[in-house]
């Protein structure tokens, strides 16, 4: 049993998080229920931010709010002094509703609409991460018509793709995102942007992948970008004030995953960037990073109530819970793996291996295929760990299942931060064709 963050057990032998008994939470708020360990989120945030400070490198650590966006979550990010990435009008709206300083909001996305761009300009956000030529045009038009300047980063694809333990160099990267660095697109974008008075080019951005456990990919990407910056300094007298290296820092979902600490990622990457900049005779830019998963992933736990089971002789035993792909689509979407335990007796010895199934009408609705676990009974509470990133954020109403509640726990206290949806919520936007008979 691996205990994340502040997790442990109490005198009843129940799983606790943030000093709160999870079984009490299940009783009070029902299941499925997402619980976030706020002390762990703060620890991760400080791990990134304070490392930059110690190294004396000006930085922005922007939480990629797509991992989990809610008003309370963004308030925690604000308290920790981080910046924020948004990728849609909806995420931007949530940030503004949370009272987040617009100056520290960065707007991402490969197809921002004119409405979203206008909205972001009206709020006065700090930076647009421009993805493509179309955006360059519509952003500059919007700036001119409003007479508001915009700071931008150009998103480039450096030809590096990183996955978990390795990275690949892809000559011309086949990605829907960004300007290609190798084939001249990025340079073309820079020239266009520099010619527009309403746009201030702060620098370059890249994001090479997700769930990355080592720093080689980040360092290779920085190398590719800095090579170009040296040329662009010569050719256009362009100085990049900012180098944004994206997110993707890996976390531990199962015992096979071996991430390094936030401080280690930062130290290693910074030391390489410093060397590369020095060798290119360029001055050190601000370094921005964009962790999503690594700030909230292992701080999240989902509680379910165990219901039916089915034994397929000689093959496996299915254990069904009261949620599934409606609250965690990652196993179905990308074979994501998780660990879990019975929250009312997490220390009980494992007696069998089960496949944890959801309750949706879809054979692929599985949460875990091979979970060693104590014998679970209907009514037991199953805790699935490390569900804090892309869990609630991707939750849906398939089968008209209501989205669960979210509770934050810290220092022995629990706060409900997102209410469970009701059946009324499900039909809120439905309009009848006929009056009710
Ligand atoms: C998704 C994304 C992130 C965050 O990725 P994580 O794997 O959650 O850290 C950061 N930057 C960009 C541009 C992204 O698309």
TrEMBL record:
Modified residues (N6-(pyridoxal phosphate)lysine): 66
Recorded catalytic activity of this chain's protein: meso-2,6-diaminopimelate + H(+) = L-lysine + CO2
Domain of life, source organism: Bacteria
Active-site residues annotated for this sequence: 361
Keyword Ribonucleoprotein: no
Binding site for pyridoxal 5'-phosphate: 248, 290-293, 390
A GO biological-process term: lysine biosynthetic process via diaminopimelate
An example Gene Ontology molecular-function term: diaminopimelate decarboxylase activity
Coiled-coil blocks: none
Pathways involved: Amino-acid biosynthesis; L-lysine biosynthesis via DAP pathway; L-lysine from DL-2,6-diaminopimelate: step 1/1
Entry EC number(s): 4.1.1.20
Residues of the Orn/DAP/Arg decarboxylase 2 N-terminal domain: 40-296
CDD domains: PLPDE_III_DapDC
UniProt keyword terms in alphabetical order: Amino-acid biosynthesis, Decarboxylase, Lyase, Lysine biosynthesis, Pyridoxal phosphate
Residues that bind substrate: 293, 330, 334, 362, 390
Enzyme class: lyase
Residues in Orn/DAP/Arg decarboxylase 2 C-terminal domain copies: 34-388
Free-text function comment from the UniProt entry: Specifically catalyzes the decarboxylation of meso-diaminopimelate (meso-DAP) to L-lysine.
Name the UniProt record assigns to this protein: Diaminopimelate decarboxylase
Record organism: Jeotgalibacillus campisalis
Gene (name only): lysA
